[in-house]
Write a structure and sequence with these properties.
The protein is mainly α and 59 residues long. The chain contains one helix and no strands. It is 34% helix and 0% strand.
Amino acid sequence: MLPPFIIEQIRRREERERSRKEHQPQLELPVAPAKPAKRRVDEDEPDPDRGVIIVDLGG
């Protein structure tokens, strides 16, 4: 267990940091609204055309 004076120092340090963060000015930036997600392709619909790549690893 830590000695009481070390525990007190840690507590004071945490309080100072918390106080400093609370009083620090903050700037709020305007954010554009989120774009709607792309529509997912249903399994009933045919898959979009895809290219096929054949890699021959045999020599």
